[in-house]
Write a structure and sequence with these properties.
Length: 244
Protein backbone atom coordinates (compact mmCIF):
# COMPACT_ATOMS: atom_id res chain seq x y z
CA UNK A 1 0.00 0.00 0.00
CA UNK A 2 3.07 2.31 0.13
CA UNK A 3 3.64 4.82 2.88
CA UNK A 4 7.35 5.63 2.64
CA UNK A 5 8.09 9.17 3.79
CA UNK A 6 11.40 10.73 2.76
CA UNK A 7 12.94 14.00 3.92
CA UNK A 8 15.90 15.35 1.97
CA UNK A 9 17.93 18.40 2.97
CA UNK A 10 15.06 19.85 4.99
CA UNK A 11 15.63 23.27 6.55
CA UNK A 12 12.99 25.21 8.45
CA UNK A 13 13.32 28.52 10.28
CA UNK A 14 10.83 30.45 12.33
CA UNK A 15 10.85 34.21 12.90
CA UNK A 16 13.16 36.87 11.49
CA UNK A 17 16.23 38.86 12.44
CA UNK A 18 17.16 38.46 16.10
CA UNK A 19 14.16 36.20 16.62
CA UNK A 20 15.18 33.79 13.91
CA UNK A 21 15.19 30.15 15.08
CA UNK A 22 16.62 27.35 12.98
CA UNK A 23 14.16 24.58 13.86
CA UNK A 24 15.41 22.08 11.24
CA UNK A 25 18.96 22.37 9.96
CA UNK A 26 19.45 19.88 7.15
CA UNK A 27 17.40 16.80 7.94
CA UNK A 28 17.81 13.72 5.76
CA UNK A 29 15.77 10.74 6.91
CA UNK A 30 13.53 8.08 5.39
CA UNK A 31 10.67 6.32 7.12
CA UNK A 32 10.03 3.03 5.35
CA UNK A 33 6.50 1.91 4.53
CA UNK A 34 4.97 -0.35 7.14
CA UNK A 35 7.42 0.54 9.92
CA UNK A 36 7.02 2.13 13.36
CA UNK A 37 9.61 4.85 14.05
CA UNK A 38 9.97 6.91 17.22
CA UNK A 39 11.70 10.29 17.31
CA UNK A 40 13.37 11.51 20.50
CA UNK A 41 15.46 14.53 21.36
CA UNK A 42 15.74 17.41 23.80
CA UNK A 43 12.97 19.97 24.05
CA UNK A 44 13.35 22.47 21.20
CA UNK A 45 15.38 20.06 19.03
CA UNK A 46 12.80 20.25 16.24
CA UNK A 47 10.77 17.06 16.77
CA UNK A 48 7.33 18.64 16.38
CA UNK A 49 8.53 20.75 13.48
CA UNK A 50 9.85 17.62 11.74
CA UNK A 51 6.50 15.89 12.23
CA UNK A 52 4.49 18.91 11.05
CA UNK A 53 6.69 19.30 7.96
CA UNK A 54 6.73 15.58 7.15
CA UNK A 55 2.94 15.57 7.39
CA UNK A 56 2.58 18.61 5.17
CA UNK A 57 0.99 20.67 7.95
CA UNK A 58 3.86 23.16 7.77
CA UNK A 59 6.03 24.26 4.83
CA UNK A 60 9.76 23.69 4.65
CA UNK A 61 12.11 26.53 3.60
CA UNK A 62 14.50 24.31 1.69
CA UNK A 63 14.46 20.59 0.92
CA UNK A 64 11.95 17.99 -0.10
CA UNK A 65 9.32 15.82 1.53
CA UNK A 66 8.35 12.81 -0.54
CA UNK A 67 5.52 10.34 -0.03
CA UNK A 68 6.33 7.19 -1.99
CA UNK A 69 8.64 9.29 -4.13
CA UNK A 70 6.10 12.01 -4.92
CA UNK A 71 6.62 15.54 -3.58
CA UNK A 72 4.10 16.14 -0.84
CA UNK A 73 2.94 19.56 -2.06
CA UNK A 74 1.62 17.98 -5.24
CA UNK A 75 -0.57 15.73 -3.08
CA UNK A 76 -2.05 18.49 -0.94
CA UNK A 77 -5.65 17.99 -2.00
CA UNK A 78 -5.48 14.35 -1.12
CA UNK A 79 -3.46 14.79 2.03
CA UNK A 80 -6.36 13.90 4.28
CA UNK A 81 -6.52 10.54 2.60
CA UNK A 82 -2.81 9.81 2.93
CA UNK A 83 -1.99 11.12 6.37
CA UNK A 84 -3.54 10.63 9.80
CA UNK A 85 -2.69 12.67 12.88
CA UNK A 86 -2.78 11.90 16.59
CA UNK A 87 -1.94 14.61 19.10
CA UNK A 88 -1.09 14.62 22.79
CA UNK A 89 -4.26 16.58 23.55
CA UNK A 90 -6.56 14.18 21.61
CA UNK A 91 -8.24 17.11 19.76
CA UNK A 92 -11.69 15.49 19.82
CA UNK A 93 -14.85 17.55 19.29
CA UNK A 94 -16.46 17.66 22.78
CA UNK A 95 -20.04 17.99 21.52
CA UNK A 96 -19.79 14.93 19.30
CA UNK A 97 -20.02 11.29 20.33
CA UNK A 98 -17.09 8.91 19.79
CA UNK A 99 -18.81 7.59 16.69
CA UNK A 100 -19.41 11.09 15.30
CA UNK A 101 -15.80 12.07 16.00
CA UNK A 102 -14.59 9.05 14.04
CA UNK A 103 -16.96 9.88 11.17
CA UNK A 104 -15.80 13.49 10.99
CA UNK A 105 -12.88 13.12 8.52
CA UNK A 106 -15.22 11.28 6.13
CA UNK A 107 -17.85 14.02 6.43
CA UNK A 108 -15.22 16.70 5.84
CA UNK A 109 -14.03 14.84 2.75
CA UNK A 110 -17.63 14.45 1.55
CA UNK A 111 -17.28 10.70 1.58
CA UNK A 112 -20.07 8.22 2.31
CA UNK A 113 -20.27 6.84 5.83
CA UNK A 114 -20.68 3.10 6.24
CA UNK A 115 -22.00 2.49 9.79
CA UNK A 116 -20.55 -1.04 9.77
CA UNK A 117 -17.09 0.36 9.00
CA UNK A 118 -17.42 2.80 11.91
CA UNK A 119 -18.49 -0.11 14.17
CA UNK A 120 -15.36 -1.94 13.04
CA UNK A 121 -13.24 1.13 13.75
CA UNK A 122 -14.68 1.40 17.26
CA UNK A 123 -14.16 -2.32 17.89
CA UNK A 124 -10.62 -2.10 16.53
CA UNK A 125 -9.66 0.33 19.29
CA UNK A 126 -11.57 -1.63 21.96
CA UNK A 127 -14.51 0.76 22.16
CA UNK A 128 -17.34 -1.25 20.63
CA UNK A 129 -19.59 -0.33 23.57
CA UNK A 130 -18.62 3.33 23.75
CA UNK A 131 -19.73 4.73 20.39
CA UNK A 132 -22.49 6.91 21.82
CA UNK A 133 -20.32 8.42 24.59
CA UNK A 134 -18.99 11.96 24.36
CA UNK A 135 -15.28 12.61 25.08
CA UNK A 136 -16.02 13.91 28.60
CA UNK A 137 -17.58 10.54 29.42
CA UNK A 138 -14.44 8.64 28.37
CA UNK A 139 -11.08 8.08 30.09
CA UNK A 140 -7.90 9.62 28.65
CA UNK A 141 -6.86 6.34 27.05
CA UNK A 142 -10.34 5.85 25.59
CA UNK A 143 -10.28 9.40 24.17
CA UNK A 144 -6.89 8.80 22.57
CA UNK A 145 -8.15 5.53 21.13
CA UNK A 146 -11.09 7.41 19.58
CA UNK A 147 -8.54 9.83 18.11
CA UNK A 148 -6.59 6.89 16.66
CA UNK A 149 -9.76 5.38 15.17
CA UNK A 150 -10.54 8.81 13.69
CA UNK A 151 -7.02 8.98 12.21
CA UNK A 152 -7.45 5.49 10.72
CA UNK A 153 -10.92 5.95 9.25
CA UNK A 154 -9.66 7.25 5.89
CA UNK A 155 -7.17 4.35 5.74
CA UNK A 156 -4.13 6.64 5.55
CA UNK A 157 -0.74 5.31 4.54
CA UNK A 158 1.00 7.17 7.33
CA UNK A 159 -0.01 8.01 10.91
CA UNK A 160 1.87 10.85 12.61
CA UNK A 161 1.65 10.90 16.41
CA UNK A 162 3.02 13.81 18.47
CA UNK A 163 3.47 12.68 22.10
CA UNK A 164 0.34 10.50 21.86
CA UNK A 165 0.82 9.16 25.38
CA UNK A 166 2.02 12.43 26.95
CA UNK A 167 -1.26 12.98 28.76
CA UNK A 168 -1.77 9.36 29.86
CA UNK A 169 -0.62 7.36 32.86
CA UNK A 170 1.85 4.56 32.16
CA UNK A 171 -0.69 1.72 32.16
CA UNK A 172 -3.12 3.34 29.74
CA UNK A 173 -0.20 4.66 27.69
CA UNK A 174 0.73 1.04 26.99
CA UNK A 175 -2.75 0.33 25.59
CA UNK A 176 -2.36 3.18 23.13
CA UNK A 177 1.20 2.16 22.20
CA UNK A 178 0.15 -1.45 21.62
CA UNK A 179 -2.63 -0.16 19.40
CA UNK A 180 -0.18 1.92 17.34
CA UNK A 181 2.14 -1.06 16.97
CA UNK A 182 -0.84 -3.15 15.87
CA UNK A 183 -1.61 -0.59 13.18
CA UNK A 184 1.82 -1.31 11.70
CA UNK A 185 1.85 -5.08 12.26
CA UNK A 186 -1.70 -5.84 11.16
CA UNK A 187 -2.40 -3.19 8.56
CA UNK A 188 1.08 -2.34 7.23
CA UNK A 189 0.62 1.36 7.80
CA UNK A 190 3.58 3.59 8.64
CA UNK A 191 3.67 5.16 12.11
CA UNK A 192 5.99 8.05 13.01
CA UNK A 193 5.79 9.06 16.67
CA UNK A 194 7.48 11.82 18.66
CA UNK A 195 7.99 10.93 22.32
CA UNK A 196 9.96 11.84 25.43
CA UNK A 197 9.41 8.45 26.98
CA UNK A 198 11.85 5.50 26.61
CA UNK A 199 8.99 3.06 27.26
CA UNK A 200 7.00 4.57 24.39
CA UNK A 201 10.11 4.47 22.17
CA UNK A 202 10.58 0.77 23.01
CA UNK A 203 7.33 -0.01 21.18
CA UNK A 204 8.91 1.25 17.93
CA UNK A 205 11.13 -0.69 15.54
CA UNK A 206 13.52 2.19 15.04
CA UNK A 207 14.39 5.23 17.10
CA UNK A 208 15.76 8.40 15.50
CA UNK A 209 17.52 10.99 17.66
CA UNK A 210 17.29 14.68 16.91
CA UNK A 211 19.38 17.51 18.38
CA UNK A 212 19.56 21.14 17.26
CA UNK A 213 17.43 20.42 14.22
CA UNK A 214 19.58 17.57 12.94
CA UNK A 215 19.45 13.79 13.05
CA UNK A 216 22.25 12.73 15.36
CA UNK A 217 21.83 8.97 15.48
CA UNK A 218 19.44 6.07 15.63
CA UNK A 219 18.77 2.73 17.30
CA UNK A 220 17.20 -0.39 15.78
CA UNK A 221 14.68 -2.32 17.86
CA UNK A 222 15.10 -0.02 20.86
CA UNK A 223 14.48 -1.39 24.32
CA UNK A 224 13.95 0.65 27.49
CA UNK A 225 17.52 -0.29 28.48
CA UNK A 226 19.23 0.68 25.21
CA UNK A 227 17.28 3.94 25.08
CA UNK A 228 18.18 4.72 28.69
CA UNK A 229 21.86 4.01 27.97
CA UNK A 230 21.80 6.32 24.97
CA UNK A 231 20.03 9.05 26.94
CA UNK A 232 22.58 8.73 29.75
CA UNK A 233 25.34 9.34 27.20
CA UNK A 234 23.80 12.72 26.34
CA UNK A 235 25.03 15.86 28.05
CA UNK A 236 23.55 16.43 31.54
CA UNK A 237 20.35 18.42 31.23
CA UNK A 238 19.97 17.53 27.58
CA UNK A 239 17.78 14.55 28.28
CA UNK A 240 14.13 14.96 29.06
CA UNK A 241 13.51 11.29 29.50
CA UNK A 242 11.23 10.46 32.35
CA UNK A 243 10.52 7.06 33.78
CA UNK A 244 7.19 5.60 32.80
P1 LIG B 1 10.53 20.00 19.97
O1 LIG B 1 9.28 19.41 19.41
O2 LIG B 1 11.73 19.13 19.82
O3 LIG B 1 10.39 20.50 21.38
P2 LIG B 1 9.96 22.16 18.15
O4 LIG B 1 9.94 21.58 16.79
O5 LIG B 1 8.66 22.43 18.82
O6 LIG B 1 10.90 21.28 19.08
O7 LIG B 1 10.74 23.54 18.11
C1 LIG B 1 12.04 23.69 17.51
C2 LIG B 1 12.44 25.15 17.66
O8 LIG B 1 11.61 25.97 16.86
C3 LIG B 1 12.34 25.67 19.08
O9 LIG B 1 13.41 26.57 19.31
C4 LIG B 1 11.01 26.39 19.08
O10 LIG B 1 11.01 27.42 20.03
C5 LIG B 1 10.93 26.91 17.67
N1 LIG B 1 9.54 27.01 17.18
C6 LIG B 1 8.69 25.98 17.01
N2 LIG B 1 7.51 26.41 16.52
C7 LIG B 1 7.62 27.76 16.38
C8 LIG B 1 6.77 28.79 15.91
N3 LIG B 1 5.52 28.51 15.47
N4 LIG B 1 7.23 30.05 15.92
C9 LIG B 1 8.48 30.34 16.33
N5 LIG B 1 9.35 29.41 16.78
C10 LIG B 1 8.94 28.14 16.80
Amino acid sequence: MGGTVGLTGVHKTYGRGDNRVQALDGVDVDFAAGTFTAIMGPSGSGKSTLLQCAAGLDRVDVGKILLDGTPLHTLSELRREHMGFVFQSFNLMPALTARQNIELPLRLAGRPIDPAAIDKGLAGVGLAERGEHRPAELSGSQQQRVAIARALVTRPKVIFADEPTGALDSRTAREVLALLRGVVEQHGQTVIMVTHDPVAASYSQRLVFLADGRVTGELSDPTVETVALRMAALEPGESEAKPC
